[in-house]
Design brief:
Keywords: ATP-binding, Cell membrane, Membrane, Nucleotide-binding, Translocase, Transport
CATH architecture of the largest domain: 3-Layer(aba) Sandwich
CATH class of the largest domain: Alpha Beta
GO molecular function, one term: ATP binding
Number of helices: 8
InterPro entries: AAA+_ATPase, ABC_transporter-like_ATP-bd, ABC_transporter_ATP-bind, P-loop_NTPase
Bound molecules: adenosine-5'-diphosphate, magnesium ion
Helix content: 25-40%
CATH topology of the largest domain: Rossmann fold
Structural class: alpha/beta
Strand content: 25-35%
Radius of gyration: 19 Å
Largest sheet: 6 strands, mixed
Protein name: ATP-binding cassette domain-containing protein
Family: Belongs to the ABC transporter superfamily.
CATH superfamily of the largest domain: P-loop containing nucleotide triphosphate hydrolases
């Protein structure tokens, strides 16, 4: 699989989005979605993206993942321009998309089986890491929503990607499972040290997990409206007055003034 061109920018950035514009042709007309966008992310940052539905959050993630090419501009990951998907950038969606005919262990080992490079030790370690030890032989239909998403996380992390691209990964979970999984996701990020780019519609989730929160929006086409560094140390408390202040600021930025 071709992933990147050997084109070093000489900068130590995990992600560099430079002058990216993107849109789609619908019925012969070009409809812009993302207007000129610049973004620099350092290795190991946890960036949360918030914005109204349809503003282009998933589109931006697909561009970073290399699943689509921008209409204009450049995207570099670790100093190399993105030309397609690659094992250094794993994407995780709302739906865990497990294969029903494979066990937890076989689902986690999927990419290794495809490439013919099975590493049993890495598979077992990833399963333990997400707290699924003992469930290796379970089938997807025997798992709760949270366990299925843990399996998807183990599958995402098994080959130690440098970047995790998360599109509302906890969006389908019930409220309490969601809180548990936020703590888990934070622990995995701390332990593995990957760079995370996560779309969420939950401001509290963003403030619990992220080192930086970006809001996207605008009329007709989106841009970055705000880029807020979350300075609170981990482990964070959701009722920390500093975080509540940021929550208010971010919601105002998104157009919600009276919440
Ligand atoms: N493959 C596609 N073809 C045409 N339009 C698309 C396609 N994917 C997304 N769009 C449009 O781009 C806009 C942004 O979509 P999306 O990135 O999914 O938004 P978000 O994730 O913020 O809800 C929407 O108006 C959507 O209809
Ligand atoms: Mg989306």
């Amino acid at each position: 699989m071709v992933t990147v061109e050997p084109r070093k920018s000489g900068e130590d950035l995990a992600l560099h989005v430079r002058g990216v514009q993107h849109g789609y042709h619908i019925d012969g007309t070009y409809r812009p979605v993302i207007q000129e966008m610049d973004l620099r992310v350092e290795p190991g940052e946890f960036v949360a993206l918030l914005g109204p539905s349809g503003c282009g959050k998933s589109t931006l993630l697909r561009l970073i993942a290399g699943l689509e090419k921008p209409s204009a501009g450049w995207i570099e990951v670790d100093g190399r321009s993105v030309t397609g998907p690659g094992p250094d950038r794993i994407v995780m969606f709302q739906d865990p998309t497990l294969y029903p005919w494979r066990t937890v262990r076989q689902n986690v080992a999927l990419s290794q089986d495809i490439s013919g490079k099975r590493d049993d030790h890495a598979v077992d370690e990833a399963i333990r890491l997400v707290g699924l030890g003992g469930f290796e032989k379970a089938w997807p239909h025997q798992l709760s929503g949270g366990m299925a998403q843990r399996t998807a996380l183990a599958r995402a992390l098994v080959n130690h990607p440098r970047m995790l691209i998360l599109d509302e990964p906890l969006g389908k979970l019930d409220a309490l499972t969601r809180l548990t999984m936020q703590t888990e996701l934070h622990r995995l990020w701390k332990e593995r040290g990957f760079t995370a780019i996560m779309v969420t519609h939950d401001v509290d989730e963003a403030l619990f997990l992220a080192t930086r929160v970006l809001t996207l929006g605008g009329t007709n086409r989106s841009r970055i409206l705000s880029d807020i560094r979350v300075e609170a140390p981990f482990h964070r408390h959701r009722d920390d007055p500093y975080l509540l202040g940021l929550r208010h600021e971010i919601l105002s930025q998104l157009g919600y003034k009276d919440v």
